[in-house]
Amino acid sequence: MPIKARIQIRRDTAANWLLAPAVLGRGILFEGELGYETDTGFIKIGDGTSAWVSLPYAGGGSIVGIIHKGPWTAGTSYVVSDVVSYLGSSYLCRADDPSSSLSPVANPATWGILATQGVQGAQGVQGVQGVQGVQGVQGVQGVQGVQGIQGA
């Protein structure tokens, strides 16, 4: 029986996906279109307007075993699936980073954004006045001053 249709998923290395916006339209997936990173195994699903770097990774697959390592620290060794926080956002390590000399922001080929920090919210309403505190203890007596000039 002949093949009537073939479904093919767009694929490339993580580094090439990051360079994709430089090639007109190449870095934008159609709405619902899958994009696959051949070197990391991660998948993104297009929304029809966002560049590759702005799309979140799809759940499941390689992402299931993520390990949160806390704040990113220069000189620390990170491996694929490690997650760090940096400047209020979370990043997923997509390629082993043995020396970690560049921050996740400066090294998008190794680190993918997992969650970005939101904008600061509006200030809340003024709280109610608290109860009066207890009277403090009396301070120590000061030293005696110098004697004044004798009058005439």
Q: How would you describe what is shown here?
A:
The chain has 152 residues and is mainly beta. It is 4% helix and 20% strand. The chain has one helix at 14-19, and strands spanning 10-12, 34-37, 43-45, 67-71, 82-86, 89-93, 111-115. It has a four-stranded mixed sheet, with no helix packed on it. The chain has a three-stranded mixed sheet with strand order 1-2-3. A hairpin with a 2-residue loop joins strand 5 and strand 6 (89-93). The protein is elongated, with a radius of gyration of 29 Å. The termini are far apart.
List segments where confidence is low: pLDDT < 50 over at least 5 consecutive residues.
Answer: none
Secondary-structure element order, N to C:
EHEEEEEE
Structural class call reads mainly beta
Main-sheet strand order equals 4-5-6-7
The overall strand count is 7
